[in-house]
Specification:
Structural class: mainly alpha
Distance between the termini: 45 Å
InterPro entries: BORCS7
Helix content: over 70%
Largest sheet: none
Number of helices: 2
Radius of gyration: 28 Å
Protein name: BLOC-1-related complex subunit 7
Keywords: Lysosome, Membrane
Number of strands: 0
Order of helices and strands: HH
Number of domains: 1
Shape: rod-shaped
Oligomer: single chain
Subcellular location: Lysosome membrane
Pfam families: BORCS7
Length: 105
């Protein structure tokens, strides 16, 4: 249960990053056209450079967030396992309490 939400979130982040990378590749293509035409090449270089710099920060932040989400997912799975183990023990505990109650009366 918790894994699927985390998986969807990871896929959404990857999708967003892919879109940003695609945008930067398009910007790079535009840059090449501008350089070959010789018009406004400096502005295109500055824009593309800025976009790549921003993307690098976004990728680093996303990676950090993904690592944190992975740890949270692991901890949630440990808690689910502990809850399941406790739930499996409930019938035995109930039987023991009934035995104690029966022998006390």
């Amino acid at each position: 249960m918790a894994g699927s939400g985390s998986k969807n979130w990871h896929q959404e982040i990857k999708s967003r990053l892919s879109e940003k990378v695609a945008n930067n590749i398009n910007d790079l293509g535009s840059l090449c056209k501008q350089v070959s035409k010789g018009s406004k090449s400096l502005e295109a270089i500055e824009k593309t450079s800025k976009n790549f710099t921003l993307l690098e920060g976004a990728i680093e932040n996303s990676l950090t967030t993904l690592k944190k989400m992975s740890l949270l997912s692991q901890h949630l799975n440990y808690q689910i396992d502990a809850i399941n183990t406790s739930a499996e023990q409930l019938p035995d505990i109930k039987n023991q309490l009934e035995t104690i109650h029966t022998s006390a009366t």
